[in-house]
Amino acid sequence: MxxxxxxxxxxxxxxxxxxxxxxxxxxATEIEKMVADFNAKKxxxxxxxxxxVLSKDFVTSNDSNKKKGGLIALAAASIALGKDTExxxxxxxxxxxxxxxxxxxxxxxxxxxxxxxxxxxxxxxIIPLFPSLFTSLSRLVTDPDQNVKNGSELLDRLxxxxxxxxxxxxxxxxxxPLVRERIMAKNSFARQFIISWISVLNAVPEINMVVYLxxxxxxxxxxxxxxxxxxxxxxxxxxxxxxxxxxxxPTVVDIPQMMNVLIVQAQxxxxxxxxxxxxxxxxxxxxxxGDIIRFSSGIFTAILPCLAFEGESKKHIKDCATAVNIxxxxxxxxxxxxxxxxxxxxxxxxxxxxxxxxHSSVPTKIAVLxxxxxxxxxxxxxxxxxxxxxxxxxxxxxLSDSSDDVVLQAIVVLAEIVNSATAKGSDFxxxxxxxxxxxxxxxxxENRIFLDNRGTLIIRQLCRLLNAEYIYRTFAEILQxxxxxxxxxxxxxxxxxxxxxTTSDLFELRNTLRDxxxxxxxxxxxxxxxxxxxxxxxTLSLCLLAQCYQHVSEIVVLFADMEITVDFLVxxxxxxxxxxxxxxxxxxxxxxxxxNDNADAQHLSRAxxxxxxxxxxxxxxxxxxxxxxxxPNYWGQPAMINSKSSNESxxxxxxxxxxxxxxxxxxxxxxxxLEQRKKNQF
Length: 682
Hints:
- By secondary structure, the chain is mostly helical.
- The protein contains 35 helices and no strands.
- α11 packs antiparallel against α12 (229-248) and α30 runs parallel beside α33 (599-614).
- The radius of gyration is 45 Å and the shape is rod-shaped.
């Protein structure tokens, strides 16, 4: 009967199928000799027949012993062929690869050992089968059996050496998809396998791995959170190498293509991933410059929350995020700012910035406000459409913030919006300017604590940044129209008056009010007077500042018929204190001045004596009395007063009408106080 396994003898076939390794090994040695002889004679048909028998009748058999024998024999055949294995490489390797997925642990082990021997002999001729080998290896490294895993590590190292030797013929385009398919693996050994291959190939000068970085970057970042420190270390090292290569030559890779991955990873809850991603963003902002601007909204989403980090554990992340913010701001501030700003998606950027103005930390809010201010400064026309959306946030959230720094920066932004819009004649004109101050007054009226704690700071800053005269005139015009909430109006007038009299930034405004003979100054005085009439003592202060001493003396006389409340006495007390301050140094000198035929001095002296008679004998009383004792007695003689020489008589202001207005307003306040008392009784 003909031998079905020819040219392999029946005895050899039987030995290859034996359950003992020794007999299978002897049979494999016999096949090795047989193949060597056929190869020497170039009997390639016979060799192919032997390989076919081993593949079909042994390696694919259901008998595990026959599989093991076939695997050993295929390796032996390859050893016999030496370099000529290349002729039969696929016929030898493919059956072995199939056995690597066998359910029998020992079969998988023998398959890995057999494949190692075949690859060792084949060397470079194995490269065309690299995708299949790599796929099989990626499974072996996660094998639950340690012996199989050890065998896979030996095969892995050998294959890497061969790839390095054959780097010129290695198909990187075919390799990358294999990596991409496995880069998101969660198994630590699979991750280690992938990282090691990328690292090895990246170290080969002839292979340019960084070109393919965008395809594997996400997976590498995910590996940074692996539980094994060794995996983290390997991944960090690899990413550092890639970044070093990019910094040396930014053109080797498409930087913008990687930005979205970095932005997402920069928002990770894992500190290592977050820091690494933000570090990369920082370097890319410096390298790509203008090309990065279009990713600004995403970058803001990633870095702005990091500015709120506290404590040493996250200080490095905060510092890195701060650096990104600074570098990004420099791109829209330097010589190429106009070109860079064209790449800015203003709508998306403003949407992100607006969101972070609400419920954010102080450092984050300040950074956002500085960005908003800068954008209004540089692209005010484009930003005008965003003013209306920003105003509610700036007014309701930022101005009410517990941090003075946030409040001050918010006012800077508001002032810039008003200034740029008014100067450029955009839709955001002076009516909007007035609307802004009306909204501010609404806030003050709704929250008295807010007015007490922040009112002076806000108004002073506005006057510093905007036109102080226009601020005061507008406030006065708005408050003058108030007919119902008179108590708030009076409080607001007192606040504005105190700021006017005590703030160094309003020096010019005070000087303007001191010369009511000037038509512009007179107009401002009249406007303020009509509003200041809501607070009697503030009206007195305004007239003293404007050197309307005759009118002051007339108002003081009127006080005798007014209700003297506790608030009134407190205000008078403050006024006396102010008279002794540097602001009113010129007023005190008037008391000994011969100007206007002594008229101003005499009217002022009478007014101050009147105030002295109104207040109780407190410290303020003693202070004012001591001052008046220094005044010559003849200033107070009525016969010496020449009304036509007074300051008021030399202006075009109708003081009679103003006096009547003051009386009406004060009467209105008196009626409202009486009504309120009646309500309180019930």
